Amino acid sequence: MARLGLVLVLVGSTVSLAQNSRTAAPKPLTTIEDGVLDAIQLFVDKWPGSPATPVVMRKFSGLDADLGTGGEAGKDTRQSEAKTIKAEGPRILAEHFAAKMKELGALTATIAEPGTPVSGALVVDGKFTKIDPGSRTKRYFVGFGAGKSTVSVSGTVTNEAGLVIATFAQTRYGAMGFGGGDSLGKLLADSKDIGADIAQFLSDWAKGKSLK
Fold it and tell me: Which domains does the chain have, with CATH numbers?
């Protein structure tokens, strides 16, 4: 795959100009799997700002998520659970992202609606890729991971110039609980936890900590 060899120095970090190309894919400088998040790709050699650099999370989209057992072929209850998270998950994730960022104290984070113009900040965008209530019955009677609920997201971090500086993916599973556990409760909890996971990733990166 063709790539541009030139680089652009921006805010003390190296960014591949391939990110501006319509024909060439960016080449990550660092790829991390099963670290603070399931998958991270970094396109800069260090955190591209200071602790004072604000971070804006635009609420993730849930429109194209795979609903698994909550899809059209699923039971009415599961469909309702999946649709609830599809609608409310983006807000829940963003709120817990901002709360965790405040708790960690490394960066200032705010929330914006999708598509909102943002300037002078790092921007986190993303989407829910899977919202699956799983099967409470299977969790209760079968166990061993059967019927687990799943929440998955993927996203990007862009710098003040609009260049992608990182991509990420994270999944949370719910496999246990009394009587198989409440599927909606698990999906809600996992959406919250993923918001906190993304905040931990950015905080650790900003502090120069290991992301592995």
Answer: 28-206 (3.40.50)
